[in-house]
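Chapter summary example.
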Amino acid sequence: APQLMAQTGENGAGKSTLIKIISGVTRPDAGTVAFEGREVAFATPQEANAAGIVTIFQELSVMPDLSVADNISITRPPRRLGLIDHRAQRRRAEELLARVGCEDINPIERVRNLPLSRRQMVEIAKALGRNPKLLILDEATSALTAADVERVYGILHKLRSEGLGLLYISHRMHEIKELADTISVFRNGRHVETFPTGTRNDEAIIGMMIGREYKNVYPPKPVRAAPPAPVLEVRNLGWVDRLHDISVTVGKGEIVGLGGLDGQGQRELLLALFGVLRGVEGSVEVEGRPVKPGSPAAATRRDVGMALIPEDRKTEGLMLPMSIGDNISLTALRKLTRGVVIDAGAEKSSIAAMVEKLQIKIGSVAD
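The structure predicted for these 367 residues follows.
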């Protein structure tokens, strides 16, 4: 019978590494993989796709400068007289977008113009276009709105009823219980236990994930004797037709959440504060001093002291051709430079300290 198996565990538990092995991205050092009753060893993702194993990775693979239709048919575009049949390609994209409940996405729209949640839905449509026998989803709902998450739930239930095998990677307990027939827990690169959904409570599952008794994940919030001093004050911020008269204050030691449906200006507000957007109106103060960063570089200066974790870390946050260590030290080079030369010793110490502080699980900073 078709099944949806969920794999769960903390970040760095080995979930993504396992699916990379199954899908031909990484070669295992030991052991075997069997698919449809026979042993397989895929050297590339293309080989896995040809066998019927399709993976939607946590990092999206859509090409931002191509259209939605181009992305969906990127590996097998329909052809006529040796040329790409763009009309047939658009029809195919419309069919697959309808299958994932996204008829509102224009097939000829460039992916770059879509919010991240819509790009994720294009990725799912693209995967279904390859007619998988086994569909693997790695944190597939991490960037989705609540409405799109419900769409994905419906899609997965339907695919399971059609006989498709599904392997779902997540550490969200409510998703796992909603979707999975069986749950498999990983910790520190090892399989801990596999069991039917509903046979373990949340505390037991989390205990398997972290390797100790589950108690309070979040400590109680401290009671403040007085309102915190403001570290950021934004007044009457506006930008073209996307941001209108926005005012917000963030106190020291305070977490402020921005709510709203996807695409309602939250991202633009952060980009405006960080100096990415031009023509921003209104005033911004940091610790009582007026600031107006004209660029991200200006926003990160010591006298401003801002940092931004962007929505799409792959294209906006990281330099993928560079090593882990180089990415960590990239924004701190001013502190690590003597004259025009980077102090290699200071850089190495700084990287090691950050890896330790954030408990980053890596093989080597040179990777």
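To summarize the output: The chain has three domains: 4-210, 227-311, 318-367.
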